[in-house]
Amino acid sequence: MRFAEQLVTVLAVALVGNQGVAAARGNPWLALALGTATAVLAVLAYAWVVRRTERRAPVEVGRDGAAAAIGRGLLIGVAMCGAVILGIALLGHYEVDGWGSPTGAVGLLGFMAAAAVTEELLYRGVLFRIVEERTGTWVALLFTGVVFGASHLFNPDASPWGAVAISIEAGFMLAAAYAATRTLWVPIGLHFGWNFALGGVFGAEVSGGDTAKGLLDATLSGPTPITGGAFGPEGSLYAVAAGVVLTAVFLLLAHRRGHVVPRRRADRVAATLAP
């Protein structure tokens, strides 16, 4: 019952907010305002429904250390994106043609903020966290990663390979980031940093979603395994490799910190993992 209540509450904010942001794509400042409002309201709604259904403080979105955790996630996400774009550029498949659209980047700030926050609350805050309590960390990571990847099949330029790539480099990695830190702020920052750097700065397609132009007007051309094709660099083997490395690092941290929940003890141990 709590799973349904939490899912519906956050999903309602996500659907209304993201639809509003999408409708405002022609007005970047309105899109920024609506995206920011959606992100804030989604966190507040998540915190409220967790208190209501679990009778506890929602420490995974607590204020203490939130700014620093978001900052760490941002740095990781931007660095990961920069490394992937650099790898593609060194092979001659990414070229900057000039400046893109600063106002487009402003609109993307709002769009990416709303998407990153609502998706992390839904997939890691609700789905991963509750599934982990029942099945343990490994099963929850695998299951939610696949579901997260499959959800991107509805994007305009989606592909089966793109969904698989997203599962590996994002679904698994972001779940591992939450498992390692037991805060949603790090995966939120990482998710936003990756998405905005990819579309808002480097001018690349994000998840085959028909992304608006960012700060740079750039061209990606060449073999799909390198560039990701119409799906964007998230379909690149570089992105998959980077995601695998970060997933391994986060899981190692989770293991060292005692945050990995074994399946046989999932129900009993989950309550002890709150920061």
TrEMBL record:
Keywords: Hydrolase, Membrane, Metalloprotease, Protease, Transmembrane, Transmembrane helix. InterPro entries: Rce1/LyrA-like_dom. The keyword Lipid biosynthesis does not apply. One of its GO terms (molecular function) is metallopeptidase activity. Residues 105-196 form the CAAX prenyl protease 2/Lysostaphin resistance protein A-like domain. The chain crosses the membrane at residues 32-49, 70-92, 104-123, 135-154, 160-180, 192-216, 236-255. The keyword Nucleotide-binding does not apply. This is CPBP family intramembrane metalloprotease domain-containing protein. It comes from Saccharothrix yanglingensis.
